Amino acid sequence: MRDFSNDHSALTLNTATLGHNLDGYGAGWPVERMIDACTERGLGGIVFWRREIGNRAVEIGERVRASGMQVVGLCRTPFLVGPLAPPTRQQVMDDFHASIDMAAGLQAPVLTIVVGGVIEGSHSMTDSLKTVADIVAETLPYAAKAGVKLALEPLNPVYGGNRSCLVSVRDAVDMCEAIDDDHLGIAVDVYHVWWDTSLEAELKRTGPKRILGYHLCDWLADTTDVLLDRGMMGDGVADLKAIRKAVEDAGYVGPCEVEIFSANDWWKRDPGNVLDVMVERFRSVC
Amino acid sequence: MRDFSNDHSALTLNTATLGHNLDGYGAGWPVERMIDACTERGLGGIVFWRREIGNRAVEIGERVRASGMQVVGLCRTPFLVGPLAPPTRQQVMDDFHASIDMAAGLQAPVLTIVVGGVIEGSHSMTDSLKTVADIVAETLPYAAKAGVKLALEPLNPVYGGNRSCLVSVRDAVDMCEAIDDDHLGIAVDVYHVWWDTSLEAELKRTGPKRILGYHLCDWLADTTDVLLDRGMMGDGVADLKAIRKAVEDAGYVGPCEVEIFSANDWWKRDPGNVLDVMVERFRSVC
To answer: What is the pTM of this model?
Structure first.
């Protein structure tokens, strides 16, 4: 495995870790300050959310690269199906295309897909996954033309009803195998997969070409708020070294992206301190 | 599949559905009234929690059978490992034995095991599962002597940190195969497995002898309280008919046990009404 104790150039900030500056969370740092703070600490990359970019994708992408980092990815597509998706298929497709355009403007190589929950009234994970696969397959030519890869992110099963009917690496790999397109892969997020004892086998099955992202945080033992109570690496129960070994044994050598939603803890702290702890934990426990 | 529209003798009440009469929930019904209400509605069985039984196991078991029903099971063992388990191994074993004794007193054929979360400081699901397997294997002779089968219940992965490092049917089946004892099997609960697209294959792999229980409720699309916000069958997104087909295709023909923790909805209703709705939903949507 790569030795991060002496090198954290693989470390990438997902800006969600600093609280998004929304809904009363976060310290109000603008994009430029986040970029500078990551550069100062020797990070290799940054992942933005669309809300932060607006119509400045090209400008922000250039600024990141001028600072010596990469735009590693963009969060994210609209929910494609389920109760939180836009009301019509046309609106889903329009927003899906808009998210690809923004990733292309940033020169972000990867756009994350969070697929949305079980289709209302269907009572069927399987049927919902079929519709997701149809929408993704239909959109892949547009993504390929834009030079953007799409990463299916399986979420923790607790989100199956509303945010993602894709809840296991196995199902994500199956969908990739069925669609079989060079611009489609998966994102592996510790929060969503830490419990899955089949992770190593599933990642080996799909191989390095299809692993488009590796997201870090920790699962707190006493998790009750499943949306906004993620832990800093080392503070929870996930076997971070074993998960990274599974990802790297499957051939992944890309960025390690820290994504921590934490309304009551990390989002209340000084962002500079959060970044310092993040670097230290990445080097010591990941 | 069995046709429940004309026969609900397989229907079993898990008394948790009526709110336990604890912590301000439930209508205060004593055990006797619960038994009578189930009998009046033609249910075939009842599953108790230890807190309701005290030292009256034999008396209550006899009363259930005199009413024409069966004591289908008992909830449950102590947590065996993790942050919520009793502090010492000896205390775990003592309470494990006490729960077996109570099941035997009730003449309940099955005792449910909720294994407990990842062992503190271990950061390892795998090591925690090994310790669970050791404890279960050590206890099986005692259970066999008492005539009680032990049902490993995999919980939803959201509970992996604190309540159950056993979070998939696959892992539960693996543990049963490894221990290979006639008194060990699994319980399949809709709340915990509804998302699992490998359910059918895993149940076929283990076969009917090892399926010791089938628990019903529904997963509400907008689940946020993961402990006390379960849905009544038909109100959520789970594919109840597909899950039952998977269970029955694997050969299970036992009771169907309704277990709904619902602090803000069903526990606030009149228990008689809850039972009436439960019977109606069981016949129409399960």
So the answer is: 0.96
